[in-house]
Design goal:
single chain, 114 residues, alpha+beta, two-stranded antiparallel ribbon, 4 strands, 33% helix
Length: 114
């Protein structure tokens, strides 16, 4: 029950995962043709999504290379796209163990700092 009170630690963990995501990229098979910056990619192709580049993109994050846990306060995330932070993937294929992993990280770090 005390884990839920570690709010700032949760912000720090999220910021660390933004800078150093647990998975470097995701792969998805396209269901339909997609055009990205003038390049057509036909359906059926498998694409790689580089999470680390998304998480450090200056068009998505201010000061993307700096460690700023406060960027994950709910007031700072209200205008962010839900896919701008995807350390555990997103959508219907996200990691089913992400809440367990986050709580496990909180417990471990809290015990180390104790």
């Amino acid at each position: 029950s005390d884990i839920s009170k570690l709010n700032y630690l949760a912000l720090c963990i999220k910021e660390a995962m933004r800078l150093y995501p647990p998975a470097p990229f995701l792969q998805r098979r396209l269901k339909e043709d997609v055009t990205i910056e003038g390049h057509r990619i036909p359906s059926g192709n498998i694409i790689n999504i580089a999470i680390v580049h998304l998480h450090r993109n200056p068009d998505v994050w201010d000061q993307p290379h700096d460690f700023i846990p406060e960027r994950f306060l709910s007031t700072n995330l209200k205008d962010k796209d839900s896919f701008s932070f995807i350390p555990f993937s997103a959508g219907s294929r996200n990691c089913i163990g992400q809440n367990f992993a986050l709580n496990e990280e909180k417990v471990l770090i809290a015990r180390l700092l104790r």
